[in-house]
Specification:
This protein has 253 residues and is α/β, with parallel strands linked by helices. Helices cover 40% and strands 8% of the residues. The protein contains 8 helices and 5 strands, in the order E-H-H-H-H-E-H-E-H-E-H-E-H. Strands 1-2-3-4-5 form a 5-stranded parallel sheet, covered by helices on one side. Helix 5 runs parallel beside helix 6 and helix 7 crosses helix 8. The radius of gyration is 20 Å and the shape is globular.
Length: 253
């Protein structure tokens, strides 16, 4: 990854792939062969402009994952890589510490909810914490990460940067987590949908939409900058934020 130019590393702990999603998953073919082409052709043909721009950019993808290739082996398909991932042992804190040591650079541990885990991640070498439940798509009954954010900030906010992920859909959501003390908000699904819809231009339009929504929210709050935000700007019901001593529900630690 360093040779590819990566400046920082994010390790995700909130997607175990140990069970199917509660609400199902989209069908993803292993490769674009004749059978898959016939099955998905009606969807592609119903969006001719998208199909034309997609073909113009280089043709149909082979659905391979180059970064999962081992040494000089041929890159596996997405499904092959996913199956290999599912067969990998669950990481331990020793694994996190080992990885942070060999990376020796900006290192975020994403998928943290409980303050105790945030402290363990910092002890293992994390330079940033990602408060996240992976958008709730592995266990959709998990409480919102927003309820855990202040606890994590109290635990490690003075030592490392704390970011927030899950449920960010508009600029007002970004403003909320920044006001509570997060350094940034991650918008994985939003830019991914923009990329799928219209490539680079789609991502740019997503970012422009967020920027406009953030500006409108700040104006509505009487703020001229995100630097003026404080936790007092957010009104929440009593008991919304979970206490440090409360365990994660359903054994999710």
């Amino acid at each position: 990854m360093r040779r590819a130019g990566a400046k920082g590393l994010i390790i995700t702990l909130d997607a175990t792939a140990s069970q199917p999603r509660d609400w199902g998953s989209p069908t993803i073919p292993e490769r674009i062969d004749l059978q898959a082409a016939i099955k998905f052709a009606p969807m592609a043909l119903s969006r001719p402009r998208w199909l034309a721009s997609f073909l113009k950019s280089g043709g149909i993808p082979d659905l391979k994952v180059p970064n999962l290739a081992k040494s000089d082996d041929i890159a596996p398909t997405m499904i092959e890589g996913f199956m290999d991932w599912m067969g990998t042992a669950m990481p331990t804190w020793d694994d996190i510490e080992w990885l942070s040591g060999i990376w020796d650079g900006p290192f975020m541990v994403k998928g943290i909810l409980h303050p105790d885990d945030a402290r363990r991640a910092v002890d293992a070498g994390a330079t940033a914490i990602g408060v996240s439940n992976h958008g709730g798509n592995n266990l959709d009954t998990t409480p919102s990460p927003l309820r855990y954010l202040p606890g994590v900030l109290d635990a490690v906010g003075n030592e490392v940067e704390v970011t927030f992920d899950s449920g960010i859909r508009r600029g007002a959501d970004v403003v909320k987590v920044l006001a509570l003390g997060a350094k940034s908000a991650l918008i994985g699904r939003s830019w991914f949908f923009g990329l799928a819809a219209d490539g680079e231009r789609g991502v740019s339009e997503v970012l422009d939409a967020y920027r406009l929504s953030i500006d409108r929210t700040l104006i509505g709050m009487g703020k001229s900058s995100i630097d003026e935000l404080t936790p007092d700007d957010i009104i929440v019901p009593d008991g919304f934020f979970l206490k440090h001593t409360e365990p994660l529900p359903m054994g999710q630690r």
